Amino acid sequence: MADKHKLWGAAFSKAPNEVAWRFGQSIESDLNLLNEEIQVSIVHAQTLAQAGILSKEECQEVVAGLQAVRSDLSVGSVRSDISGFEDIHALIEAKLKEKVGVLADKLHAGRSRNDQIVTVTTLWVRHRIRDLWDGLEEFQKVIVEVGERWIDEPMPGYTHQQTAQPITLGYHLLAYAWMAESDFQRLTDLYGRLRSPLGSGALAGSTLPLDRHFAAESLDMMPVSHALDAVSSRDFVGDMLHACATVMQHLSRLAQELVLFSTAEFDFVRLDDSMSTGSSIMPQKRNPDFAELIRGRSSRALGNYVTFMSMMRALPLGYNRDQQDDKPPLFDSVGLCLESLSLCTEMIRTAEWNLPRLKQMATAKFSTATAIAEALVLEGLPFRQAHEAVGKTVIYCEQHSKALADLEQSDADALGLSLAALRAGTLESALDGKQTYGSPGKVPRRQLLHETKQILNASLPDLEDPDTIS
Questions:
Q1: Which residues of the chain have pLDDT under 70?
Q2: For residue range 81-107, what is the model confidence (pLDDT) as tens digits?
Q3: Distance of alpha carbon 117 from the chain centroid
Q4: Cα 357–chain centre separation
Q5: What is the model's pLDDT at position 9?
Q6: pLDDT for residue 74
Q7: How many Cα neighbours within 13 Å face the side chain of 237?
Q8: What's the pLDDT at 29?
Q9: What is the pLDDT of residues 392-413, one digit of tens each?
Q10: 390 within 8 A of 366, measured Cβ to Cβ
């Protein structure tokens, strides 16, 4: 039953059931791994040459053949002829054989599809981390640019989605830059922990004298220490899916605020026409569809993580075919992150903020009350008593249709409080008077802006680029 498109079958008397064969194919999804598959095969050829399995001339011919295959597949010249292949390994080997003949049969010595695919996937994750770094960096740059522009413009801050205390628009936006920084650091940590499984074979290495350290260093990594662990574990896929789910969760929260803030009831922001859509029946409608899609698709990223963890939870050690299904959710989540980062960056870059409305609502619902309570504390009143006194002040204002900032000496006398403490309830005093590190006060928010700019200027890890392998 041996078939030129299969890497196995000599000991089988029957071909696979047609439905079963299609069910087990991964070639369409595997094409995402083309560049990494070629890179890993080149490194393996060089490792075989170092071990004397391939001559220097044979290695050069195989490498040139692999580069030619990559060029052919990259331009799509043979992409229509992939249906008969089980996976990308079979495709590459067959195409290499067209280039170098029987020499291609030597390439698989000392390796298994088990260590091959996990190495290829590891390399793919390294490359996509770099792409995500770029997306996060651009997102942060735009957040900082817009945040600096509006660093002094008041807006309401919320808890429980209820007006709580005044902050500024720039301060609010900068929070997303720091959320992105945690994403950046999470991905950087994962990048530094990636190891090469190449040379681990099916599960127990090889009797051939292959230098796994040489192979790993050629991929700019260290080798996984335990061969069985190397082919069994997909923790790095789970870590990447978790990182992507967290990025999407952060972007979803931003998207939800843009949806909410663009309603007529809030009227805080107008999204650019290029980031909105219309209605087929209501000519006046402006819909924040792309923000809504990001919010919705964040659930897909979370679902991908849960799907993967559920798949892995009961697998015994060694490669199991279940693990073939680690890649579709991985590809999906990374793609969602990259596109959503790009869209959120553009939405913030082009958004028009209604500054008068934001300032008007900054003091709604007596949002400066806490500042009065703290002013009373500075006068020597215990905080619980100050809290109660300001609560009564709020009731007094509601009964007399007054804002906290409108209270006068006669009101202070009626309340039994100092006018100086009540004056702390003005927007300027309540906002700019904040002193603690990380707060939106006049001095701390400038310090925060400076520190946020510093994380933008921090250099990326000084890492060699695996794309340079040739």
A1: 1-29, 75-83, 459-470
A2: 666 788 888 889 999 999 999 999 999
A3: 23
A4: 33
A5: 54
A6: 76
A7: 30
A8: 65
A9: 999 999 999 999 999 999 999 9
A10: no
Spell out the residues 6+ positions from residue 188 whose beta carbon is closer than 8 angstroms to its own: 129, 133, 461
Look at residue 456 in the predicted model and tell me its pLDDT. Answer: 86
pLDDT at 466: 46
Q: What pTM, to 2 d.p., does this model score?
A: 0.90
DSSP β-bridge partners for residue 155: 167
- The residue whose two tokens read 């553009």 is 346
Distance CA 14, CA 12 (A): 6
Contacts of 205 (CB under 8 A, 6+ apart): 199, 227
How far is 218 from 199, CA to CA, in rounded Å? 13
- What is the predicted pLDDT for the residue at 81? 63
In degrees and rounded to multiples of 5, residue 270 shows phi and psi of: -120, 120
Position 470 scores a pLDDT of 41
Q: Any catalytic annotation for residue 279?
A: yes
Catalytic site residue from 13, 80, 160, 410:
160
Three-class SS state of 36:
helix
Structure tokens at 321: 């075919």
Tokens 């071909």 locate to 15
Of the candidates 289, 302, 287, the residue with the CA atom closest to the CA atom of residue 337: 302
- Asked whether the beta carbons of 258 and 288 are under 8 A apart, the reply is yes
DSSP 221: S
Share of the chain above pLDDT 70, in %: 89
Q: Which residue in 71, 77, 182, 279 is the catalytic one?
A: 279
213 has catalytic annotation: no
Angstrom distance (rounded) from CA 154 to CA 360: 9
d(CA 162, CA 403): 18
User: 3-state SS of the chain: helix, strand, coil percent to 5?
Assistant: 65, 5, 30
Is 162 strand, coil or helix?
Answer: strand
Task: Give which of 63, 96, 84, 67 is closest to 6, Cα–Cα.
Answer: 84
Report in angstroms the alpha-carbon separations of 150 from 103, 147, 410, 458. 65, 5, 37, 23
Q: Are 253 and 296 in contact (CB under 8 A)?
A: no
* Predicted local confidence at residue 302, as pLDDT: 97
Q: What is the dihedral of CA 161, 167, 173, 179, to 10 degrees?
A: -70
